[in-house]
Design brief:
By secondary structure, this protein is an alpha+beta fold. It is built from 10 helices and 6 strands; from the N terminus they run H-H-E-H-H-E-E-H-H-E-H-H-E-E-H-H. It folds into 2 domains: 72 residues, Orthogonal Bundle (Arc Repressor Mutant, subunit A); 98 residues, Arc Repressor Mutant, subunit A, CATH 1.10.10. The chain has a 3-stranded antiparallel β-sheet. A 3-stranded antiparallel β-sheet has the order 4-6-5. The longest helix has 13 residues.
Length: 178
């Protein structure tokens, strides 16, 4: 009888599966289309091999909103997963990076600095507040936003920096690491 570890090892003998597993391990939380964009593998092949990797327990999926996100079946905390789900979206990532830089700011300032529409900023901030990543404090007629755990955000951005393909992330990490 073949052991579970042997089945998993054999599953990674194919180069295509090894490539997919490596991408998902280093870039947890990617959705299907992003995996396809990064690997340039045909949709049918990706579907087949991702299903196989999931069947043998090497990867797992999680539905977040409208996206099915892929994670390697390795140790990742719930907090890291929650943050990764959000920072995979470019606009949210830029909001978080700006909040890391400024510590707190209001809605108008985010709209002006990030050049994102007011309703889009509101929608993203609501998701971040609902996920307990961002705090909202009302001061007079304005609301101010800050991060609940800036150190955890930094840790996740640094740990998975290669997976974001974003020059802003690279610049901020360079600043923190020096």
């Amino acid at each position: 009888m073949t052991s579970y570890q042997e089945i998993q090892r054999k599953a990674l003998e194919l180069e295509i599966r090894q490539s997919l597993y490596s991408l998902i391990s280093t870039s947890p939380g990617l959705h299907f289309r992003e995996i396809q964009r990064r690997t340039h593998i045909a949709t049918g092949q990706i579907t087949y091999h991702l299903n196989y990797l999931q069947k043998v327990g090497l990867i797992k999926t999680e539905t977040v909103g409208e996206y099915l996100r892929y994670y390697a079946n390795i140790q990742i905390t719930d907090e890291e997963r929650r943050i990764l789900e959000m920072v995979r979206q470019k606009s949210i990532r830029h909001i978080l990076l700006y909040l890391l830089e400024t510590n707190n700011c209001n809605h108008e300032h985010l709209v002006k600095i990030l050049d994102i529409g007011p309703s889009t900023i509101s929608w993203h901030l609501k998701k971040l507040i609902d996920s307990s990543i961002v705090n909202k404090e009302v001061g007079g007629r304005k609301s101010f936003y800050s991060l609940n755990d800036p150190e955890l955000i930094k840790k996740v951005l640094i740990k998975y920096k290669e997976s974001f393909l974003d020059i802003l992330v690279d610049r901020f990490i360079e600043m923190w690491e020096t």
